[in-house]
Amino acid sequence: MTLWRMIRRGALLLPLLLAACAGQEARNASSEHDIARVEAYFHTVDLKAAPFSQVWPDGAEGSGALAYHPGYLDMRFTAPHLMTLHAEGRHAVFTDSATGAETRIGLARNPLGLLLDNPVRLGGAVMVTDIRHAPGVLQLSLARTDNPSQGLVTLRFHDSAGRLSLYQLQIVDERRRVTLITLGSG
Predict the structure, then answer these.
(1) What is the DSSP letter of 127?
(2) Measuring CA to CA, how many Å separate 62 from each of 80, 88, 163?
(3) How many CA atoms are closer than 13 Å to the CA of 88, on its beta-carbon side?
(4) What confidence tier does 19 reach under pLDDT thresholds 50, 70, 90?
(5) CA atoms of 167 and 153, how far apart (whole Å)
(6) 1 within domain boundaries
(7) Rounded CA gap, 144 and 146, in Å?
(8) Angle CA(104)–CA(127)–CA(65) in degrees, nearest 5?
(9) What residues make up the domain containing 134?
(10) Does the model's pTM come out above 0.85?
């Protein structure tokens, strides 16, 4: 192919490239708006005794009630048996009443730790990897900026009249195991 033909083909594609760039800027502005809305949600959220159901990576199911505000999570399972997960800051303790076992979990590398900063900030150390919209739903996926392979948290919100309400979290750990937590079920 001659140099002249390459220049002509490039000139023909230039309007398409410019249109794609303009669309990218509009999408980024919309993304920034969605990120700001989710951060605002986390600045005011204070869940108390919210019913939840959970599906663990092995397919086992559980349910109970949870309390959450930035920097604090307390999950009290009533099914399949009494268990608790209490997390604050960078540490969590899981207690299983059936076995008497107590497991301490560091959250610095655990995807759940992404939601335990106070305040929750979706920038800097936390990277928004994906934003999706469906009618009445906003979904954001989060990872650690410095090491995204440590896991991913996907948040699903009902979006009604500009108001967000978290209804589901999908947590994918570093071994690609998926845990699904649904609020409002139990």
Answers:
(1) E
(2) 5, 22, 29
(3) 0
(4) very low
(5) 13
(6) no
(7) 6
(8) 45
(9) 30-183
(10) no
Reply yes or no on whether the pLDDT at 89 is more than 90.
no
- Output the pLDDT for position 29: 78
Whether 10 maps to a domain, the answer reads: no
How many distinct structural domains can be found in the chain?
1
Q: Is position 148 within any domain?
A: yes
Q: What is the CATH number of the domain that holds 167?
A: 2.50.20.10
pLDDT at position 36 over 80:
yes
Residues in the chain: 186
Spatial CA neighbour of 157 closest among 77, 23, 40: 40
Burial (CB < 10 A; 0-12, 13-18, 19+), residue 114, is buried
Give Cα separations from 150 to 22, 34, 73, 122, 159 (angstroms).
33, 24, 20, 17, 29
Residue 161 counted as domain residue = yes
**Residue recorded with tokens 């139990």:** 186
